[in-house]
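Question:
When you can, review this sequence-structure pair and walk me through the tokens.
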Amino acid sequence: MKLEILEKGYCYHIYNRGINGCDIFSNNDNKRYFLSRLKHYLIPHISVFAYCLMDNHFHLVIRIENDTELIQKVSNFFNAYAKAFNKQQNRTGSLFEKHFKRVRLESEVYLRNLIVYVHLNPTHHLNQDFTKFHFSSYATFLSNKPTALARNEVIELFGGFDNFVCCHSARQEFLNETYTFE
């Protein structure tokens, strides 16, 4: 399988899961540590448009700002997290599936839909209200707290704050509908 390279100026969907479907986060501290390592290793080399950390997988929507040795930086980020998690859990071996998945986004429509998809992950996988899920970037977009997220750019991508919220709610309502065929 040929892996997509990470090129400056392009947006990507980066995702992976635990090897054999195992959990990669056993508690909220693990998720906070993952985000701190993301910031340490990859900011300012990337802009983060969205993220969601589930127990056994994660999603990142990013844009590459500086591709100088970025693959090595990404590798260092994942390795640092895996080593810390393995030490904490008293386990050895691979934590993640072999290679992180990466898909280059070719259109703004796809980017907007992906951001909404990533934010709705808690609803899909945990049957939880995505607006209250702590380890998704959605709530950060709604707050005024300082953030490393590309908040203003993402809000503009949706045509404003109200439309950002509306697009998420409309998609959620669509997913909640049940269809019967007679």
About this structure: The helical segments are 28-42, 70-89, 108-119, 121-126, 138-142, 151-157, 161-176.
